[in-house]
Amino acid sequence: MVEMSSARVVVTIPPRHWYGGLDRRAAFAIIQQLQQRFGSIFYQFDTTPFTQGQVDGWFSFITNEPIDVGIAGVKTYTFLLNDFHYPEVGNVFIVNTDTLKTSRDKIEACMVAELMGWRTSIQQPALGAQLSATKYGQGLTTSEQTLESKAQNQLIATGDALTAGLFYVTPAAQDANVKTLALGGTTVTTKQLFDMSVLDDIYKAHPELKIPPTPGS
Fold it and tell me: What is the greatest pairwise CA distance in the chain?
């Protein structure tokens, strides 16, 4: 970070819902820090300024823009906010408490399907990539989507997920996330924010889903 103190850093501005699990206020608090340290420049998702050497750094999705500039022939070094003590859970599953009580079987069925899908993606990263490029997406290529798939898989099958199961947020990780949210002014307890009981029940009923999947090539 110190070495980047005079760098020109681009901060992309995604729509509100794209912040995943990171509270918007916490996100902007981090962005404000980037402005103060680096004199950030705001763009959307066109990486041309980076590939043309107009800027020195890029604050964005690690599963997307680094791949784009890599395909363009630019070598990069990437790191996560988590690497510098800003852990956050992204792309969370959200239900209200009433639904959790009255439709728990449906929620569990949905989560089992998600787990099975991610396990298949990790084992066969090109499968979903091919479907995205040839069936569901537009203007995509299977090769680029496969690289994105592998990058996403590395974020899913890592750390606590290798022992506690995919999607599982351990008590230590919950505490760390609450501290990150507090940086942006959001005060919440782990009990208010996280409920692992659905996954507990799923992994008890389907222990095979807890076994870490073997990443495919």
Answer: 55
